[in-house]
Amino acid sequence: MTATIETDQLQALRFPVGMFEFGKTYTDEDIQQFIKKIEGFPARLKKLTAGLTAEQFDTSYREGGWTIRQVIHHLADSHMNAYIRFKLALTEDTPAIKPYNQTAWAELEDSKTALPQVSIDLLTSLHARWTI
pTM value? Predict the structure, then answer.
């Protein structure tokens, strides 16, 4: 029983918004709510991380996981990729969706050392474009 609880807790930490559900349908109201969440995300992230020290940014949120700094830079990387994929889907008949190695990207120097504010600023601008 304990192993199941630990596995469930680990899954909740790894996928805080839940696992992807293929084939799920959404209403226009759902879509507008998602757009509002995307629009407000950078401000929410900025508020959540305000006042953190360099030591806190370099702390892992779970054992074996990325640091808070790496997660913030991953968010910028992931959202940039998503934005480009949306643009390709809107402008090409059969766009190729190229994956990227998220783990390798998180180990690059910029992900490990750049100021988190750099990616928060990037997300602010990107989300402003994404939600027009």
Answer: 0.83
pLDDT in tens, 66-84: 999 999 999 999 999 999 9
Q: How far apart are CA 131 and CA 82, in angstroms?
A: 13
Q: Are 16 and 65 in contact (CB under 8 A)?
A: no
Residue among 13, 34, 9, 14 nearest 103 (CA):
14
Q: How far apart are the first and last CA of the chain?
A: 48
Q: Please, what's the largest Cα pairwise distance for the chain? A: 50
| Residue 132 token pair | 């027009």
d(CA 12, CA 40): 23
